[in-house]
Amino acid sequence: MLFNSYPFIFVFLPITVIVYFVLNRFRYGVAAKCWLALSSLFFYSWWNISYLPLLLGSIAFNYTIGRLLQARQTVSQNPSSTQRRRVSKIILFLGISGNVLLLIYYKYADFFLVNIGAATGWEVPLLNLVLPLGISFFTFTQIAYLVDAYRGKASEYNIINYVLFVTFYPHLIAGPILHHGEMMPQFDRVRGKLWDWGNAANGIYIFCIGLFKKVVIADTLAVYANAGFDTASGFVDSWIAALTYTFQLYFDFSGYTDMAIGAALLFNIRLPQNFNSPYKALNIQDFWRRWHMTLSRFLRDYIYIPLGGNRRGEAIMLRNLVLTFLIGGLWHGAGWTFLFWGLLHGVGQVIHRLWGKLGITMPRILAWAITFVFITVTWVFFRAETWAEAMRLLKGMSGLAGLHLYLNSALLEPLALIVVITPMVLLGRNSSELSVSFRPNFKQAITCAVLFVISLMYITRISEFLYFNF
After folding, report:
1. What amino acid positions are annotated as catalytic residues?
2. pTM for the whole thing?
3. What's the whole-number mean pLDDT along residues 226-235?
């Protein structure tokens, strides 16, 4: 089910909220959690019920591994229990391996088969698997849970709570990637079980902002981005294609995150911030502290640091940076363009690190411009369906295809949108800042109503969120 659809907005969301608080009102707390967990499974099944057993199987597997780790948590911390700690590490390894193998099978099997065929000349039949919705997100969430359970930072003995932790529908499909400890205690707070008009108003406000971002801005930009990536080859149209996609991806994913945060607030649940004006970044490290923040946190805590982080010298640290972003690129999709996109960002991190050692301060506007252009160029590899398509766009953007500085009516429209949108992104307050300063009043109500009504006019062209593909 899509957030940007009439069934979700007018049926599913209000019914789940009302029943949840009615059950809590009569002190049926367990029933309320069951209701929300079952509703979330229904939400997931709306897309394709055939993948529901996969989700349930993943939950059962990780819950079992988590219980085994919790059972050994106390003894593993005992200095005399070396053997037991070793067993815990083996259990954790098996748990993580099971999750990774699931991702490899569904996301990368055909990619490997294609490349094996290309390398050997054999005709290798493809599996043609359909990527299960949200598999990357619910898998990463559970990997984080297993590691936290191994470290003694998370424990869950109640299967209903665990199912709700994984499937809570505001974050199930495309994040944010959560830690158990930052969400589940909120469901047990007494005040959280009572309807809160302040949270509800704030949640509706942020949801409407996200809805407007998605259906009005992102989906409008998508038309021009798709056309540009299909045909653009000159200097101007290639840059317009790249910039429209740069802003489409931002408004699409940040719009989803806003709607997720807004919907969760209706249940008095605060999800972590996932965007903090990333296109305001002055360097590539700053960008990754602002863009998809929960993924950056996951890559840091569960890949970069286990690889050794910065504990083994400068050269190893730089290697770990590149490897972490290579893995991050591959996580986004099975393709050489995604892998190269990750490599570019890893190399960008290395260059930023080495530049910092020179002690040279760059003017802010120049630092921003270099960062933004780098991000826009690398998004070409992220979006391009083939290597040839990416090369065509980059050839046009670099001027190698000729500097034909002409503008026709078809290019004026997206250019006008870029001119209007850019100040909004670079100078305006983001949704998190608006949420913090939000106070229910007549002006905010009118703003919310206008955004909502305009958005409803655009919902006739329903589209998926871009990160559903990852």
Report:
1. 332
2. 0.92
3. 91
